[in-house]
Write a sequence for this structure.
């Protein structure tokens, strides 16, 4: 049995993995963009429209954007190209309860060999964090069965928690999941949500940013122990100033936390459904 | 009564029975897709059929049978609706030729309905509507032609009920979800409704077990397995996204050709009808392709395209929605404030506050009004805390009082309220949330006096922070500014200002300008509270 390494295994994600800049600009890494539409204008996430440009458009546009998943052809091209140079492709996607992207990918992979497609049951930078951990295993070299078992464990041990400035965008896009009854948008309430079992759900609501940051630090404390090996990534949508105090609080609670990715920014697709004013972290405990 | 009236009477019976069970049938629906619409589809099919009969002038058995058969085909919605329409059509073919209803005719009609349904479904699956109609037809078939029709009906219905209960074990997807087949159960409900309208006493007797275990748990199982594109099980749940159905009208329609085309576009397809009118139902990812092909064959009508992924999610949400454990009750003065409490999820609002304390009986009535098992009470005034505690003790259900002393404190406590937690857990979280709030109020001095060492004249504006006099004077704006500055000495981030400015020559815009200067760092929100006695109430945290 052959050993999987970075030389013979490629990693793919769709653009809802909201990676740090340049993360996928490496050999054997590819990102398949979803598309965002402002009326008749169509843009590929991150390709034709950066995060900053998207939020500027969102502020100015009179129409609300909509999003569409990649086509089967998009995945076909991507996988076929990678399979020419790589023996295996591992492809990670946002929760199928939020999008049909996984279904499109898995349909294409069914007609190919050695293309392993995962519904991560998460969204945004949590997916890049998962990929980062898979990369680390590939750097060491790993057997196929071992890697598959590792990915399963990884997906089960990942968490994602975030604050939104308003629930309006999640409501409008129908992506609010089990948090549909949540109250927000009055009296400075900051809704804090987590992604669990592939859907968003209410975690807490507090007033003011400081309490939101404290509550997120409390989330880390509640779901880890002082001995856990914690890998964590921070990301935001139009709220860069919230990340330093968040990092500081997380460090205070769990000093051993390793921030394994540069801070990331939400792109056009996730941004369409989250709106601006999001700060978040994804974490994996191993 | 005419034959047409008789038929409408029967159909009304079926419709009433189905409507009573419609939501439950929706919840049972996990196969072929857990999209939770079988009850609705059957109900709309029956509804359309009835409208068709009502709109017709047919009088004879032969013409009325045609109207019923055609009407059900035209109105058929979803898999279950189309299969129902075929049962109806088969039965109508037999009923058309006869006038006297007896056991022999019932047997023939059931047989013909069963045969037509099986003919329509090219790959019949057992554990579905087909199994139920067959069980009924077979059981009736064993009854002697000379037996009374009522007993044949009773026997057929009993066999149908047994067959419905057995479906759970016939399909893996039903067994895993712990439910009976929704379409099969729906068919039985319709048959019972018809029998009930015929005056057959037995019709409603036997209870049918439709759920084994927990329906909410079934939702997660079914949805996680079937939302889309999942590896097919033995029974191949549909992996396509759009449930598409429509009618094609024309002359000499090529039903077989249409069927071949549709079959290549998806699954769960049904193409039924005759050369003049065909009903098409298919689960596909490309409704447009199917429709454009069909529109070249004839005139298309009654097009219905449903996104089953969305329906599946909706069913899961409906069944897994956590029922409320706790309700919140608050004592509040002022229309705006009451609306705000309701907006934040407060179930019961009792009118009252400073100088108009509600009685324990009033609070108790509010506690006992809600279906939630437990209640949290927010008195929002120090004179009401005791009354609220008394009401909580006297009430028949677990009630916890969070001793909030002001409306702003009550609002902050309410933000932490979560109806899915019990009252003790809520009370702890809400008390904690309320400790972060500093409350202030601005009012008029009712007489000349010294308060906290300061001389105050009757009628002057006074500002109190946490109950202590902080500012006084004749200008509301100046007092408001002083109060905010006092609050801003603490580390505040969010400020809520509840106003009742009637009789003051001051607008909310004026106050906003004051706030912008007094605490520029804070997020300040103004709401029209409408409380008596206090032109301004403030919460800061």
């Amino acid at each position: 049995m052959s050993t999987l390494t970075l030389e013979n295994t490629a990693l793919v994600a769709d653009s809802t993995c909201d990676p740090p800049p340049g993360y996928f600009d490496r050999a054997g890494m590819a990102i398949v963009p979803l598309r965002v539409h402002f009326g008749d204008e169509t843009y590929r996430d991150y390709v034709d429209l950066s995060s900053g440009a998207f939020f500027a458009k969102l502020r100015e546009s009179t129409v609300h954007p909509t999003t569409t998943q990649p086509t089967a052809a998009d995945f076909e091209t991507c996988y076929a190209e990678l399979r020419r140079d790589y023996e295996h492709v591992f492809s990670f996607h946002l929760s199928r309860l939020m999008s049909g992207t996984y279904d499109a990918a898995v349909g294409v992979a069914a007609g190919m060999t050695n293309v392993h497609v995962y519904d991560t049951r998460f969204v945004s930078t949590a997916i890049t964090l998962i990929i980062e951990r898979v990369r680390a295993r590939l750097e060491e070299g790993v057997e196929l069965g071992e890697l598959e078992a590792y990915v399963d464990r990884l997906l089960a041990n990942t968490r994602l928690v975030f604050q939104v400035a308003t629930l309006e965008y999640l409501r409008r896009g129908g992506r609010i999941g089990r948090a549909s009854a949540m109250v927000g948008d009055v009296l400075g309430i900051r809704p804090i949500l987590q992604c669990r079992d592939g859907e968003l759900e209410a975690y807490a609501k507090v007033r003011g940013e400081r309490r939101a940051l404290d509550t997120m630090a409390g989330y880390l404390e509640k779901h880890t122990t002082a001995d856990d090996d914690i890998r964590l990534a921070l990301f935001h949508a139009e709220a860069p100033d919230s990340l330093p105090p968040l990092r500081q609080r997380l460090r205070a609670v769990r000093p051993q936390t390793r921030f394994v990715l540069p801070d990331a920014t939400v792109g056009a697709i996730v941004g369409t459904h989250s709106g601006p004013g999001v700060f978040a972290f994804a974490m994996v405990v191993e | 009564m005419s034959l047409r009236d008789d038929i409408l009477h029967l159909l009304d019976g079926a419709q009433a029975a189905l409507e009573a069970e419609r939501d439950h049938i929706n919840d049972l629906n996990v196969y072929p897709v857990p999209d939770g619409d079988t009850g609705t589809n059957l109900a709309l099919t029956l509804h359309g059929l009835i409208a068709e009969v009502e709109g017709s002038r047919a009088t004879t058995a032969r013409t009325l049978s045609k109207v019923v058969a055609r009407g059900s085909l035209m109105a058929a919605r979803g898999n279950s609706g189309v299969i129902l329409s075929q049962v109806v059509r088969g039965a109508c073919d037999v009923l058309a030729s006869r006038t006297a209803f007896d056991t022999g005719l019932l047997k023939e009609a059931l047989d013909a309905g069963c045969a037509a349904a099986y003919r329509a479904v090219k790959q019949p699956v057992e554990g579905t509507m087909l199994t139920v109609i067959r069980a009924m037809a077979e059981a009736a078939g064993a009854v002697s032609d000379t037996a009374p029709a009522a007993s044949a009906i009773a026997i057929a219905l009993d066999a149908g009920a047994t067959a419905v209960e057995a479906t759970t074990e016939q399909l893996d997807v039903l067994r895993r979800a712990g439910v009976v087949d929704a379409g099969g159960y729906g068919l039985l409900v319709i048959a019972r409704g018809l029998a009930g309208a015929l005056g057959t006493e037995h019709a409603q007797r036997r209870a049918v077990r439709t759920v084994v275990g927990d329906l909410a748990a079934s939702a997660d199982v079914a949805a996680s397995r079937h939302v889309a594109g999942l590896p097919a099980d033995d029974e191949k749940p549909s992996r396509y996204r759009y449930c598409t159905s429509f009618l094609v009208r024309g002359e000499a329609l090529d039903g077989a050709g249409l069927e071949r085309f549709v079959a290549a576009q998806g699954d769960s397809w049904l193409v039924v009808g005759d050369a003049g009118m065909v009903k098409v139902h298919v689960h596909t990812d490309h409704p447009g392709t199917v429709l454009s092909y069909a529109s070249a064959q004839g005139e298309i009508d009654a097009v219905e395209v449903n996104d089953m992924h969305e329906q599946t999610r909706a069913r899961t949400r409906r069944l897994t929605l956590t029922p409320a454990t706790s309700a919140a009750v608050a004592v509040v003065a002022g229309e705006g404030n009451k609306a705000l409490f309701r907006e934040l999820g407060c179930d019961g609002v009792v009118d009252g506050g400073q100088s108009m304390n509600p009685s324990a009986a009033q609070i108790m009535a509010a506690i006992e009004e809600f279906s939630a098992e437990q209640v949290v009470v927010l008195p929002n005034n120090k004179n009401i805390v005791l009354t609220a505690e008394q009401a909580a003790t006297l009430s028949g259900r677990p009630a916890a009082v969070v001793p909030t002393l002001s409306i702003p404190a009550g609002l902050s406590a309410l933000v932490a309220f979560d109806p899915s937690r019990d009252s003790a857990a809520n009370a702890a979280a809400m008390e904690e949330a309320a400790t972060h709030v500093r409350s202030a109020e601005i009012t008029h001095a009712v007489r000349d006096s010294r308060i906290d060492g300061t001389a105050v004249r009757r009628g002057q504006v006074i500002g109190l922070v946490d109950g202590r006099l902080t500012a006084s004077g004749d200008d509301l704006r100046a007092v408001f500014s002083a109060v905010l500055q006092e609050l801003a000495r603490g580390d505040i981030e969010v400020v809520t200002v509840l106003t009742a400015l009637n009789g003051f020559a001051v607008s909310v815009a004026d106050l906003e300008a004051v706030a912008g200067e007094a605490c520029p760092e804070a997020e300040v929100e103004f709401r029209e509270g409408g409380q008596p006695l206090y032109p301004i109430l403030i919460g800061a945290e």
DSSP finds nine helices and 16 strands in chain A. Residues 158-285 of chain A form a domain with the Hypothetical Protein Tm841; Chain: A;domain 3 fold (CATH 3.30.1180.10). Residues 116 and 209 of chain A are 40 Å apart (CA to CA). Chain A touches chain B through 28 residues (CB under 8 Å).
